[in-house]
Write a structure and sequence with these properties.
The chain is α+β, with helices and mostly antiparallel strands. Helix content is about 40%, strand content about 20%. It contains 14 helices and 14 strands. The longest helix has 18 residues, at about 335-355.
Length: about 375
C-alpha cells in the first residue's frame, strides 16, 4: 500500500499524461504513451486531437503530420472515437470480436445480413467511400430516438468498424471515408487471448493515467478504471482505494511542471470525479447548455499550471478574421504574477501555433 499526499497523486497523474516540463519526442510516441487520443471534431479553437497533441509536443506538432501517420504510414488508426497506435491493434481484436454488445444491435445486424454483405461488396469494389456513396438497401431500418434514426448505411458502417470488418481509412472536410479493414490494418496481427488483452490494456491504461480507481463509471468504448493492475494506494483526503503505477511513485520526487491549455476531452480531465478528488477542480463542458446558463463558455479549455488546474480559457478561433478571440480567462483563484505571465504566454503561444493574432488579452 502506497500512502500518497494529494500533491504526489496530482504529480503522478500529470507526469503520466506527458504534461510535465519534459516534452515527448514525437506523435507516435505521444499516442503510445497516452494509449488513446480523443477525436472529437468540435473546433471552437482546434479539434480535440490537435489540442491534445499540441499541449504535449508544442511547436513541432502539425496536424498534417498526424494525417500522414494515419492515412499513409498507417502507424496510427482510428477506432471507437480515438486515435491509437497500430501496435495496439492485437489488444483490441478480442474487443472487436465481441461488438456490437447490445442485443438490439446484434438483432438488427442479423435482420440485415444481405445489406451487410452488399455494403462489404461495395467497399471491396470501390472503397474507400463515404456513407452517402453506399446505397441504403436495408431490409430493416434502424430505429432510434436520436439522430441515427433510419440512417442505415452509417449505422451499418459504424457497427462494422467496431466489429473490425471495416476501418476508417481517412478523414477530410467532408467527413470519414470507410474501407475494408484488410486494406487499412496489417494482415499479420498476432493473436492475443481476451484475458491477456484485457490485462495488458488495463496495464497500459494505468501507465498512461499514473493513478486511477480500480472500478469507476462504465464507458461505452474506453474505460477509465484499471481493475487489479498496479499497486494499491491511499490518497489523503479521499475515500477508498486507488491503483497506482509503482514506477510513477518512484519518479514523483523529480516532478517539474509547466503551463498547458487542454482540450475538454483530454484524458487528464475526462474523469470528472477523479478530477475533483485529486485536483479539487470543478469542470463541466457547457457546449450543450443554452448560452445564458454557461458559467465558463461554449468550449472553455482547462488551464493547468504545474500540478494544479487554475482556471478556464473561454476563447474562439476566428479563422476568417485571423484572430483568436479571448472572451475570458476565468481564474479559479486570483492568479499571482508568475501564474498570470505563464498563462498569458501559453495562450499567445497557442494563437501563434494556430497562425492567429490574439484579441482580448491585455498587452504583455
Amino acid at each position: 500500500m502506497h500512502d500518497l499526499t494529494r500533491e504526489q497523486a496530482r504529480r503522478i497523474a500529470v507526469r503520466a499524461q506527458l504534461l510535465g516540463a519534459e516534452r515527448p519526442a514525437g506523435i507516435v510516441e505521444t499516442v503510445d504513451a497516452l494509449t488513446v487520443v480523443n477525436i472529437e471534431p468540435t473546433a471552437a479553437v482546434a479539434p480535440s486531437a490537435d489540442l491534445i497533441l499540441w499541449s504535449r509536443l508544442g511547436w513541432p506538432y502539425q496536424p498534417a503530420d498526424l494525417t500522414r501517420l494515419v492515412e499513409e504510414d498507417r502507424a496510427l488508426f482510428e477506432w471507437g472515437g480515438f486515435y491509437r497506435t497500430m501496435a495496439d491493434l492485437p489488444l483490441l481484436r478480442p474487443e472487436m470480436a465481441g461488438r456490437p454488445r447490445s442485443r438490439e444491435a446484434r438483432d438488427w445486424l442479423a435482420a440485415n445480413a444481405v445489406f451487410r454483405q452488399e455494403v462489404m461488396d461495395r467497399l471491396r469494389a470501390d472503397g474507400p467511400l463515404r456513407p452517402a456513396e453506399i446505397p441504403d438497401t436495408a431490409q430493416v431500418s434502424w430505429r432510434s430516438s436520436g439522430w441515427t434514426n433510419n440512417r442505415n448505411t452509417l449505422q451499418m458502417l459504424e457497427m462494422l468498424v467496431l466489429h473490425g470488418d471495416v476501418a476508417i481509412a481517412a478523414r477530410d472536410a467532408g467527413g470519414r471515408l470507410f474501407d475494408l479493414a484488410e486494406r487499412v490494418y496489417p494482415t499479420d496481427v498476432p493473436e492475443v487471448s481476451a484475458e491477456d488483452a484485457a490485462r495488458e490494456r488495463a496495464e497500459r491504461r494505468l501507465t498512461s493515467l499514473g493513478i486511477a480507481r480500480p472500478k469507476s463509471l462504465a464507458q461505452p468504448i474506453e474505460p477509465i478504471d484499471v481493475g487489479s493492475v498496479g499497486e494499491e494506494a491511499s490518497v489523503e483526503g479521499t475515500a477508498g482505494i486507488w491503483r497506482v503505477d509503482p514506477a510513477a511513485v518512484d519518479e514523483v520526487a523529480d516532478f517539474s511542471g509547466r503551463t498547458a491549455v487542454l482540450s475538454p476531452f483530454d484524458r487528464l480531465v475526462f474523469d470528472r470525479r477523479r478530477l475533483e478528488e485529486l485536483f479539487d477542480y470543478e469542470y463541466l463542458l457547457e457546449m450543450y447548455k443554452p448560452a445564458a446558463k454557461r458559467r465558463w463558455g461554449y468550449f472553455a479549455l482547462p488551464i493547468l499550471h504545474g500540478d494544479r488546474f487554475v482556471g478556464k480559457l473561454d476563447a474562439k478561433a476566428d479563422r476568417k478574421g485571423g484572430v483568436l478571440v479571448v472572451n475570458a480567462v476565468h481564474e479559479d483563484a486570483p492568479f499571482d504574477p508568475a501564474t498570470a505571465r505563464a498563462v498569458d504566454g501559453e495562450i499567445r503561444d497557442l494563437a501563434r501555433w494556430l497562425g492567429l493574432e490574439v484579441r482580448g488579452l491585455p498587452e504583455a
